[in-house]
């Protein structure tokens, strides 16, 4: 059913450079969360800290009742087996075909027979739609297929948690749409806890249960998707609409007076009905027909239906 990850007061620096500080959030078991933030705000560093590849300066990361920031290397090795990680480029071995790439974690970490390995590898390749491509080398396939192969490899040890580092980077919008559907379907099927780092606003609006945003060395917000999509927080609105007006500048931060001016212009635009300030809650992406949804989907559907009827009553 996936495991909860509870992060409290987490701070990470490299030398004198503070990457983020005092980050606290809970990734609910079995849910999909997305982490957003301008480039260089430390989203990848956050993923690496969760999996114990980087040690924080302060704070805790509790997974299955253990604070992984305090574990010795040997115990960390055990906890890491709970994780599947999809790196940006799929991180496949270029000289191995897809079958051997996907079988790799099973050969490294388990004593399963080749027949058992074959069953698992083909099952995961089927889940990500790669049956028939077993003999292909990573260099012979498209970027989208490489991502799916990386995902199949992240799935072979039946992880409780899957971390995705920009799964949509370098893909065209149609491939991104397919990948998003695959992520939602997989989450419904295996019911693991997912954390996705992305820059793709359309994905962030449709896919997750929860959204977080890192900005100016802090976690500015973390909460349910509908609440964030409705948020009046300037930085959240700016990011989710992908526009220039707001606190995020070219070099990350902007002059406060300039930000105020831009926000006032946006509000005037919204009042005049040009949609500049509109807060739109995009419908969420549902699992494909035929996929049995875990019980939490009923609660989500109820929550969203209630919000919908509230909006209809208030006429917004
Ligand atoms: N091992 C390291 N040693 C020193 N500095 C590092 C290390 N890893 C990351 N950094 C620095 O931490 C900062 C955050 O990097 P990170 O890659 O996590 O950002 P990001 O939010 O994922 O960016 P992007 O969206 O562009 O991928 C950068 O300034 C980077 O140079």
Automatic annotation (TrEMBL):
Ranges where the ABC transporter domain occurs: 5-241
Residue ranges, annotated region (Disordered): 272-316
PROSITE patterns attached to this UniProt entry: ABC_TRANSPORTER_1, ABC_TRANSPORTER_2
Any one GO MF annotation of this record: ATP binding
Keywords assigned by UniProt, alphabetized: ATP-binding, Nucleotide-binding, Transport
Sequence ranges of Basic and acidic residues compositional bias: 295-316
Transmembrane segments: none
Highest taxon, organism lineage: Bacteria
The name this protein goes by in its record: ABC transporter ATP-binding protein
Organism for this UniProt entry: Streptomyces marianii
Lineage: Bacteria, Bacillati, Actinomycetota, Actinomycetes, Kitasatosporales
């Amino acid at each position: 059913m996936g495991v909860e990850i509870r992060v409290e007061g987490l701070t990470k620096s490299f030398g004198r450079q503070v990457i983020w500080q005092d980050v606290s959030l809970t990734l609910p078991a079995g849910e999909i969360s997305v982490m957003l933030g301008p480039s260089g705000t430390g989203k990848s560093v956050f993923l690496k800290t969760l999996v114990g590849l980087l040690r924080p300066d302060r704070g805790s990361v509790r997974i299955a009742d253990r604070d992984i920031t305090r574990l010795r290397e040997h115990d960390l090795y055990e906890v890491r087996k709970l994780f599947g990680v999809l790196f940006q480029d799929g991180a496949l071995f270029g000289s191995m075909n897809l079958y051997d790439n996907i079988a790799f974690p099973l050969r490294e970490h388990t004593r399963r027979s080749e027949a058992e390995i074959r069953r698992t590898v083909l099952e995961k390749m089927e889940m990500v739609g790669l049956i028939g491509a077993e003999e292909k080398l990573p260099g012979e396939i498209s970027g989208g297929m490489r991502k799916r192969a990386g995902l199949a490899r992240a799935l072979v040890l039946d992880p409780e948690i899957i971390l995705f580092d920009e799964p949509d980077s370098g893909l065209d919008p149609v491939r991104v749409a397919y990948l998003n559907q695959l992520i939602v379907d997989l989450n419904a099927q295996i019911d693991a806890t997912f954390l996705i780092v992305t820059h793709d606003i359309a994905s962030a609006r449709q896919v997750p249960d929860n959204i977080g945003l890192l900005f100016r060395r802090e976690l500015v917000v973390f909460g349910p998707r509908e609440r964030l999509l409705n948020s009046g927080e300037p930085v959240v609105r700016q990011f989710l609409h992908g526009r220039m007006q707001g606190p995020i500048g070219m070099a990350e931060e902007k002059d406060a007076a300039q930000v105020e001016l831009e926000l006032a212009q946006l509000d005037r635009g919204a009042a005049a009905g040009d949609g500049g300030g509109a807060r739109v809650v995009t419908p969420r992406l549902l699992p494909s027909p035929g996929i049995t949804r875990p019980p939490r989907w009923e609660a989500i559907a109820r929550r969203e239906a209630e919000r919908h009827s509230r909006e209809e009553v208030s006429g917004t």
